[in-house]
Amino acid sequence: MWQGHRINYVEAGTEAPALVLIHGFGANVGHWRKNIPFLAQHYRVYALDLLGFGQSAKPLGSKFYTFEHWGEQIADFVQEVVKGPVFIVGNSIGAVVALQAAVLKPAPVLGLTLINCSLRLLHERKQALIPWYRRLGAKAIQPVLSFEPLGRLFFDQVRQPQTVRRILAQAYIQKEAITDELVDLLIQPSLDPGALQVFLAFINYDTGPLAEDLLPQIACPVQILWGEQDPWEPIAQARSWSDFPCVREFTALAQAGHCPQDEIPDEVNAHLLRWAKSYLTVV
What we know:
Layout: E1 9-12, E2 18-22, H1 36-39, E3 44-48, H2 67-82, E4 86-91, H3 93-104, E5 109-115, H4 132-146, H5 148-158, H6 161-171, H7 180-187, H8 195-203, H9 211-214, E6 222-227, E7 247-253, H10 260-263, H11 265-282
Parallel strand pairs: 2-3, 2-4, 4-5, 5-6, 6-7
Antiparallel strand pairs: 1-3
């Protein structure tokens, strides 16, 4: 329980230090199913569902679904459950959450790995960087979907298996990774009470921190892994992050899109293991 809300997490492995894995938007702990067994041979591994996703509680209210609030969730999880030094790994919006957690409570964080970190291109400060027609389209659709009957109609279509497969086909380069198991683990939490309100709250969230705001505040080393063929988070817009002092390496993954940990898990697992081991050797 965290602030009165149920939080779902899984734990594996016994060796210190710990790795905490944070999923992206619409995903859950199941998105790390190809990583946890391998990593748990070397470390204590935790994966948790952010508030509003997976099997965690889905309270009503947009105040629950901000990076500041999720960052508090992760920071408190490290303090209350992990209780020791930790590497935090996040994919997509989970990478922004990882950054926020490390800013809030930096002491136990040994390092961060950002996997295709969300660029937050619909953020109010990023609007000028996207084509005008996408900018107008996003601004037009937000108030429409905020009207709950229309939002529900849209959400009901988005969570259909065929729609989920189409979305995954955009994000994934490795099409064989789009399995019935993956589709099902993404759809099931969307059937929970409150899931619609979480979806509507987040698509209207265009403020809060950007990675560029948080990286200058990070005291620990940062590893960035990026699926080079990601159509949603273009790698070209993130390469300049290598200039931040905390970023020790930026690795492009040629055969992956938005979710490398699920598309090319062996390669990602090897990078995570090497990164943690090399840093621990140094310290």
